[in-house]
Amino acid sequence: MKILVLNSGSSSIKFQIFDMQKIVSICQGVIEQIGESRGHIKFVYGKEKEITKKSVIKDHSVGIELLEELLIDNKVLKSFDELRAVGHRVVHGGEYFSKPTLINDEVIKKIEKVSPLAPLHNPVNLIGIKAISKVNPSLIQVAVFDTAFHQTIPNYAYEYALPYEYYTQNGVRRYGFHGTSHHFVAKEAAKFLQKDIDKCNLITLHLGNGASVAAIKNGKSIDTSMGLTPLEGLVMGTRCGDIDPAIIFYLARNLNLDIKELDNILNKKSGLKGICGTNDMREVEQRAKSGDKRAKLAQEIFCYRIKKYIGAYSVIIGKVDALVFTGGIAEHSSIIREKICSDLYDTLGIKLNKEANLRHDRLISSNTSKIKLLVIPTNEELEIAKQTYKIVLSLPNRV
Question: Potential cystine with 27: which of 45, 55, 101, 386 (Cβ 3.0-4.6 Å)?
Answer without folding.
Answer: 45
